[in-house]
Amino acid sequence: MQREIIKDPSGEIKVSFGYQCDTKNDNSWDIPNRVDIPSPGKLRRANSSFSCLSGAALSANATLANTNMCNGIIGAEILPTLDSPNSFRRVPSSPSLGKMEFLSSSLQSSMSNMSISPSSPNETLDNDSFSSSFLNAEEVQMAGGAAGEDRVQAVCSEENGWLFCAIYDGFNGRDAADFLAGTLYETVVFHLNLLDWDLQQESSGSSFKQCVLNSLHLALCQAENEFLHMVEQEMEDRPDLVSIGSCVLLVLLHRKDLYLLNVGDSRAVLASYDEGGDMNRTARLQAIQLTDSHTVDNAVERTRLINDHLDDPSTIVAGKVKGKLKVTRAFGVGYLKKKDMNDALMGILRVRNLISPPYVSTEPSLVVHEVSNSDHFVILGSDGLFDFFSNNEVVKLVNSYISRNPSGDPAKFLVEQLAARAAESAGFSMEELMSIPAGRRRKYHDDVTVIVIILGTNKRTSKASTFL
C-alpha cells in the first residue's frame, strides 16, 4: 500500500491512497506500456482483475457543519477513522462476524443507536452468510475519505479477488454522502450475499449478471428509504436535511465483470485499445464512457422528466429541476420527492407548485462490462473532474502518466492537473489558487474525487450490456 500526504502552501491536506498487486509471478496481466517494479509493499495475489488502485481528492467547499441528526450519529463523528483516503484497513474474518463489524469500531459505536426503518436487514441477517459467501470478510481491506461534501470508499479482498469502489458526491450538505459512506457498502454486502455465486461458475449468461445488478439496485433503494426515514424523524429540528442529497457512483469488479451503478453526474470512463489491435505501442487508446449523465443538460433525461410531469409547465426552470437542482436523479433530496418534506422548508427555500412529486428519481443506470484484454484502466470521478477535462483528456493524461511512472499515483496526478487548469482558467498561478481557503475556492473549482483502477486481464472478450 502506498501512502502519501502532501501539505500545500495554504495548509490544506491533500491525501491519496494507492494499492498495487505483485504481478511478478502472474502471467495473466498483459498491460501495454506498463512495467511492474517489485516492491516490498506490494500485496501478493494469485488471481485478480486489477493490478493497481489509486485515489485522490481535493476539497473546494467548506464542509457544512452537521449537528444533532440522530443524536449526532450522521454528522462530524460518523467517519473519524475514515476521514481521509490514506490507508486500507484489514478486517479480521470470523464465522460469527456481524453485519456492523464490517465498519470501523468507532463507526460501529456511532451506528449502534441509529434509528432505522423496518426495512433494515438487521432483523433478518444471517451472520453465517458472511463467512460462507462470495463477499466474505476474510482478507478484506478498506479505505475511505472526504473532500468537502464528496466521500470516497474502496474495499477489496485479496483472497477472493474482488474490488468495490464508490464515490458519493454530496450537495447542499454532507449528511447524505456521510450516510452512504457509513452504510451502503454493508447493505450491498447483505444483498449480494443472498445470491448463489456458484451459479456464476456454471454459466456466463446475462441472467446472473442481471441478478447482481438487481442486488445493487435493491441496496440503493433500501439506503434511500432508511435515509429519508431518518430525515422525517429529524426535519422538525433540522429542516435543511430535506434538501441534502448525493450523487452515487458504485463499481464492483469481480474477475472479468465490471458492474456499475450510477445516479447523478459522476462518471466512469474506460480506457480501451482499438478492437482487433495487437495492444502494442501503436494501438490507439479510446475513451469509453460507461455511465449516463443524469442532468437536465442531457436531452434524454430532460425529455423523460418533462414527459413524466406533463401537468406541470414549470418542471424545468432556469435549467434546473423546479429551479433548484441540475441533476435529475439523486439520493436523498427529499423535498423534491415528498410534499411533506417540501412543506418543512420556509420562504424561498420551499419549492413553489410541487404538483406531481417525485421530480428527482433514485432509479439508477445499471451496466455490466465484461473486461477484455484490450481494456487498460477505468477512471471514476465526481463531476468536478469533468468540469475541466473531457473523457479523452483524462484518458490521455492517465495513460501518459502511468507510462512514465508505472508505480506512481495517477489519481493524484489527475487532481494536480485539475488544480493547475483551474488556476489557469481563473488567471491565477497555482500557488495563488491553493492559497485561497477551501470554501472560497468553490467559485474556481468543485470538490473533486478521483479513483483510477488499472486493469490486468487476458483472453477475454469485450462486451458492454446495459440493463434499465
TrEMBL record:
Q: Name one GO molecular function term.
A: protein serine/threonine phosphatase activity
Please list the residue ranges annotated as the PPM-type phosphatase domain.
Answer: 134-455
Q: Which InterPro entries match?
A: PP2C (IPR015655), PPM-type-like_dom_sf (IPR036457), PPM-type_phosphatase-like_dom (IPR001932)
Recorded hits in PANTHER family, A to Z, give: PROTEIN PHOSPHATASE 2C (PTHR13832), PROTEIN PHOSPHATASE 2C 40-RELATED (PTHR13832:SF550)
Name by which UniProt lists this protein: PPM-type phosphatase domain-containing protein
Organism field: Dorcoceras hygrometricum
